[in-house]
Amino acid sequence: MCTDTPHNVQGFKVVGLKYDNESKGVHQLLWKPHRVKMYSKYKPADCTLFVVNVPPYCTTEVFQRLFSVYGKVRWVFFHKKPNSGPPPTTKYPRISPLPVVTGFKVAYVVFIDPSGLKAAMSVPAHTVLVASSSSPLTGINKWQAEYNENMMLVCITRQEVKDLMEEYDRKTQAKKEAAGNLEADEDGWVTVTSMKKKKPRLAKVGELKDTKSKKRKNKKKQELVNFYAFQTRQARMDNLAQLRKKFDEDKKRITQMKASRKFRPY
Amino acid sequence: MHDVEQIGGDDGGSGDIDSDNNPGSSEEEVSGEEETDEEDGFGDQGKEVQEQAGSKRALNDQGGKPSKSAKIEGKDGKLYQTPTMEELNVLRETQMLYHSNLFRMQMEELLGEVSMKDKHRHQLQDWLTRFSGFLSTLPKTKECLLQSTDWMQEKGVCDPALTGIPGVQGRFIFAPPTKVEFVGSFSASTVTKLNKAIDVMVTMPQECVHKLDWRDGRWLSKRIKYSAWIAGSLREKPDLVASQCWTTHLGVSSRPTLQVTPSGDIGKKWKVNIFPVPPADIFKPLRFLPEKCNLHLKWFYGDAEEAEKQPPTPLYNWACGVDVFMPQHSRLIQTSLSPGSNLVQGIKLLKIWLAQRRLDRGIGCFSGHVVTMLVLHLLHMKKINGHMSPYQIFRSVLLYLTDGDWSVSGPKHATSIPSEAMVTTNPQEFHRLYPVVFIDSSGVLNLAATLTLADYKRVRHEAELALSFLSSSDTDNFESLFIKKVEMLQFSDQILCLQLKQKEGLEVLSRTRNHREVRMDGLGDGRVAVWSEVVRVVEEGLGDRKLLVAPLRSDPESWPLDQVPPKLQWSINLGLIFNPHAAWALLTKGPAADSPEVTVFREFWGEKSSLRRFQDGSFHEAVLWGDPNESVGKRRLIPEEICRWVLRQQLEIKKKSVHFVNRQTEALLHHQAYEKEFLYATGEEATVSFIQAYDSLSRKLRSLDLPLKISAVQSSSDVVRHSRVFPTVPRAIDATDCDLLTNHVVSPLDGGHCKTFTYPMEVMLLLEISGKWPDDLSAIQAIKTEFHIKMWEMLKIDGITVEIFQTYLQILWEGYVFHVKVCYMREIYLCRLVDTPDGDCKEQETAAATRLERHTDILPKFSTALASMQADHSSFSGAVRLCKRWVSSQLLCGHLPQVAVELLVAYLYLVPAPYTPPHTPHVAFLRFLHLLVHTDWKTTPFLVNLNDAFTVEDLVELNQRFTSQRSTLPSMFVVTPYDLRNIKNTEDPADKDKRYKLASHWTRAAPLPQILYRSKQLAGAALDFFSANLLKKTVDIKTVFRPSYDDYDVVIHLEDYHLSRLDEAVDPQNTTTKPSPKKIGSNPPQMVNPKEDHTMPIVMFDPAFLYVKELRESYGHLALFFHDEHGGQVVGVVWKPAALTPQELKINTLEGHKVVGVKEFKQVMNIDAILSDFKNLGVGLVGQIKLKKT
């Protein structure tokens, strides 16, 4: 590791991370205690370590192992950008799976008790961790494994679909009931909601055309063209104006073309 | 398509279109009518406006308050000002006499650009006075023999005449000329900068010329000697002439011409050709009638046997007559044309048009002189008049060219006073002796004597094309007529190169009729006769397969004074343009067995011809060129086979002298591995067969009994638009050799590799409308999955191999793999809804919605449009795939989006000007490269009008938006009609915005301007390579497809073992020889019919692609990654310039950087770590990583 590497930067500890023992290149992990005003039970302030510049090949398992040196690790969360809220979850991994965090990311390592955090913060300078793990992290083996995992088992999927739809039905039912609930609450207020709160409808192409032609017809009926003398005069003037406008536009285009030397046929 | 057919019909039947209307006069009538109509309408308006202006002026004069209307005028600015008479005239003229405003202005600019400047004109005139003064001071010489060349050597001038001609009798004497004057284009001021040579006529005095000099080559020899003497004298006058060289007049080798470069600045711009002419009245004009014999066989061949025979010598008579009639023509031109007139400008336009097509110089050219005479002829015929605009003159001349056929009845120049010869001239005699005829005002000379039939046909073809551009509404037609240069390689669908040495050429000549006379007539140069014969044979052989056989000419030769003239080039290149409907036919059908033409047909085709019975029961003589299920790729080689055969059969031209440019680039579309199991060739059939499987699958799916009926089956796959470079073919799987899960092959995890790459076609199912769909996105997904499961169950029962995945169903059908998914159109709209803070939701463009819209709505429509393009142009598939292959081979895939490439190729087919639409992939590819090189992306919008679906307003609006919002639009702006949305109200600006919101969305993310620049350079290099090497016999075309890695900062080499698409590489390697760990000891593979195989192969597994994708995701902010998806063994990396400089430390953007510094922290890219990552992310795949040496 370079000697000019600082150990403390803006409250962050700087620690090296290698892919495996043979790797020459070393990434820098920067970490500090997670401190934000918003409280989240997933990321308690006194037990959570905030790590940035996490290389793409780090997995939860790798981090669990790396940080268990400092104390027992409860959770590891990865995000693309710093996020104090709870990690995204899904009940139905096969229908709406979690988005995978790719590339460089940030991590939140939650220790079981604050001592782990303290230990991590007192890491000696120029420490270099090694990420290697038992399961394939990268490369052909990883891609092959991913390919094989992608196939879904029908029975599990079917169960998930069933659960999800049941939940959805329950929700819509609840909404309906809530909307229909017109009784006064404790304070004597009645909550009134619009019953018509339907989402705007998509207009269909056929309809569009219909309305257009109708409007046109109406207009035609109403207007008298070429009736008064001023109308004809106006029309001619408009025609002339149109021609002039076009002339000016074309002139502009010509100057542009001239600038790009478009009149040299050789 | 339409114009192609028209031309086709014309070619065969010599103008059935023209037959019913009088040539020329019809056009006049039409324009005349227009004129009167317009005059009525516009004239009235002018008057009215004038009156109005008058009354207003009166008002103002009286001191009246400005009227209301005046206020309005003020607001609208100049637009509503009262027009002046002048302005009205200009506007009126433009409407009446021109194509459009823009066209007129462009034309004026162009003419201004190419015309000779007055300054130069004066300088040249001054120079001529000095030149003429110098010539008059030259001393008269003693008489010497015409044959002797000793004095020439003394003066350091080499004899430019052809060698091998018998000696010429007569005596030569030099005396100063009686007159030196400008003739031709300069004197008529029709000269353009595109042809820099100006003609000067030098009249020889009486004493130099004998009245019998027309005999046996004496005059031609004498004019050469006279020029040579002048040249020799000029050598000592460097202040007058900077340099001199010999060229040939119109490429005729018996007429070498002295070309001098005036000294001073003017010589850098213009050159002067010197033409000595005989004094007036020394020769009888009638002596030069074509049928006259002015050369004698006895003189030329030296044998007395044929002394009595007096064959006509049309070419020789022309070569002499040109000089004799030059003063007369010059006078005619000067009296008829006034400088600066519209006629002169019209002639200039025609000359530019010809020059851009390279038809204005060299052998077989349509010279400027012919153009001028033609315009004068039309003027006398009253087909044009001096009041017409240059544009109208241009158009009338083109119409005239397309109307008549000069090879059957050429025009005869009309004059007010018919000369003696004019009365006696027999046009039939002219037509017998010349292929193309245009008789001059004297009635003796054929102005088109040097024009061969093939060249004349080319001129007519170009004229027809030009007229079709003019009548199309496209605004770019000006450029395609006058600005764009017609490149010969991009002009022809295929090229036939005939390489003949002089000996071979003479052999071919000896097989033609009258070869002795022909050779004598050309004074030993019989090339034109040989070429015409070759063209005739090729044309007859190809029959209606061809639209045009055009000789591709090289530039006229010039050589220095003191060198011998270069050897005559007997080789010729013929550009072939095909008629796509007939060109690739397997059979050449001859006459019926009992008709008298049978013997002629049989004689022409020799042993290839055989009697065949046709389906309608008739018997015909016919020639078969291949078996019925021949692939398209092979069929494209049939014309080559035909040409080779007829050239050998008819002219005994050896196989090795004939070289064809047709298959070279197409070789890149071949796929060795697929070839084993499928008649693959260039892959068109594989695509069609894939689509057939898709059709039968969609029938199967429609027959399923689902809760909602399937209303439509559509696909967004590139296979459907015939643009998948290598469409997968069904391949049998050796099940004993793979890991299986049920009957799906899975990746071996023990270090084995995936041997084949299978590409799935994506299929989308639209269901009938139902109100029961949920409003929640994940619930919709669940319902879709439910549908997938349902289909899975049903297909399973029918014994079809089917697998379920997260968003789609994978089906193995007839050996092909399909990804089927259910689509719900309302999902696009739901994605667009965004919750607002006050608990409501509103519609808004979101990335997810746009992505979905593109994929499920726009792409299928677009795919259908391109599929119909393929139906119209059978070469489209090959073309687009070849272009994509090249883009990928130069590691640009991903950077230059595939759809963008497809669109640009489609554009080439829709707007082929100045060419015909491409009929082979090869020529489309060349034009694609040319497009990449010569497009200014900043100023050119590409409106790809698929199916003509743009409305007029769309075109106007898009052009306007392009100019006004250029900086915010993608660097490559390509729009199709399918990118525009339907809107309710066309007037509402918000709605309008919505309509054009997605314009050019395909190129929004990529390409970057840098990539466009790179592609321009690469395409330029490729084009240069082609123009230098394409016509050569032994050339490795793949050079163009092999990228150079010099420009990449890091080059990552990938191991072949895991590259599943290695078969698609430019230089495929035999992967089967590689030992596979499982292969050893396994049973010999059982061959199963791939269509009946029920084992699902590994689908869409391409480690190289996954690797590059991961690299882009992780390091895309620091570098660009380049890879060839078709089996590329290398990934090129270029660091972004910003990444290489130290930056302010920002914790959030630390990704991949490291912190340095002691007190002040900076972040720099952690190159070492990233390089290790490159290796580690691709464990098993990555081989060497090389850094560029700096």
Write the SSE topology.
The complex is a heterodimer of chains A (266) and B (1190).
Chain A: E1 8-9, E2 12-18, E3 27-33, E4 48-54, H1 60-67, E5 73-79, E6 105-111, H2 114-121, E7 128-130, H3 139-149, H4 154-180, H5 205-222, H6 229-259
Parallel strand pairs in A: 2-7
Antiparallel strand pairs in A: 1-2, 2-3, 3-4, 4-6, 5-6
Chain B: H1 2-13, H2 16-19, H3 25-61, H4 68-76, H5 85-97, H6 101-114, H7 118-137, E1 144-145, H8 150-155, E2 171-172, E3 179-183, E4 197-203, H9 218-234, E5 241-249, E6 252-262, H10 266-269, E7 271-277, H11 297-301, H12 314-336, H13 342-356, H14 368-380, H15 390-403, H16 420-424, H17 427-433, H18 453-471, H19 477-483, H20 488-491, E8 494-498, H21 502-510, H22 515-521, H23 527-542, E9 546-552, E10 558-560, E11 572-578, E12 587-592, H24 598-605, E13 610-613, E14 619-624, H25 632-635, H26 638-651, E15 658-661, H27 672-675, H28 684-702, E16 710-715, E17 739-741, E18 744-746, E19 761-767, H29 777-797, E20 802-804, E21 809-813, E22 816-823, H30 826-832, E23 833-835, E24 841-843, H31 847-872, H32 876-889, H33 898-910, H34 921-934, E25 942-943, H35 952-964, E26 974-975, H36 989-996, H37 1009-1029, E27 1050-1054, H38 1103-1115, E28 1119-1123, E29 1130-1135, E30 1143-1144, E31 1153-1156, E32 1162-1165, H39 1167-1177, E33 1182-1187
Parallel strand pairs in B: 4-7, 19-22, 25-26
Antiparallel strand pairs in B: 1-2, 3-4, 5-6, 5-10, 6-7, 8-11, 8-15, 9-11, 12-14, 13-14, 16-19, 17-18, 20-21, 21-22, 23-24, 27-29, 27-33, 28-29, 30-32, 31-32
Helix pairs in contact in B: 3-5, 13-14, 13-15, 15-18, 23-26, 30-31, 32-33, 32-34, 33-34, 34-37
